[in-house]
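As a warm-up, study this chain.
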Amino acid sequence: MRKFLLLLLMAVQTATAVTVVDDRQIKVEFSQPPQRIITLLPSLAETVCALGACQLLVGTDNYADWPSSVKQLPKLGGLYDTSVEAIVKLKPDVVLAGKSSRIINRLESLGIKVVALEPQTLSDVQRSMRTVAHVLQLPKPDEAADHLWQQALQAIASAAQKIPPSAQGVSFYFEASTGGYAASDSSFIGGIMRQLGLKNIVTADMGAFPQVNPEFVVRSNPQWIFLAVPLRQSLDKRPGWSVIQAVKVGHVCTFTPEQGHVLVRPGPRMGEAAHILVKCLQGSSKL
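Now compare it with the structure written out below.
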């Protein structure tokens, strides 16, 4: 009987032990489901919550704001000023961080598990959802993540049906952040746009989010321009931009900060992002 109980205990321990491989190709092992989770990318907090585990979050980066409950959690800094000391005090079982985070090695040297994820393409987003589901040790992690993924795809497909005829197949430029960093065709934003039937002037071979020369945009002459971040000056003040077709006819979409957050976060709200973009093309967004 004792031997049987020992074998049963070993079987349970084996069943609950989980190893995930993050975007560094590093294996991270969990002997039991984490009960205290910190996220250092807004999209990762959103993914944890969308998978039904919001209650496990004990801290986030400064910018996580969805769902509203995460606004009340301790804020641990941004990409370049994350507080290691504050993280240690929260005693996390795991930190979900961006692969480019500068504090990963420091956290791991302190014995804190880190799963590093950097979703930039649509396939990255799907893989990231699956990885988070496995970290959470959901009963059917792949099934849960794929359900979330399919919901996003269905919402994007629904948005595509609402594209006005005048905007179908148009060329566009999407500025994802200040400094002229654009979303290329290989980025998750570019992937959404592609499913909406739009043509990106920033090609996949330029990288997911390249810094684009303003003259390139002038030469490419996009029919629509999307700006995810607030403008510091009107586009016609940028050298040469007054001749761009989108600028001349007013096909320039600007967004509220809240809308901008949805647009640039590679997570469960990508379907919502698609609908925001389509509303702009319909002429009903803030211009």
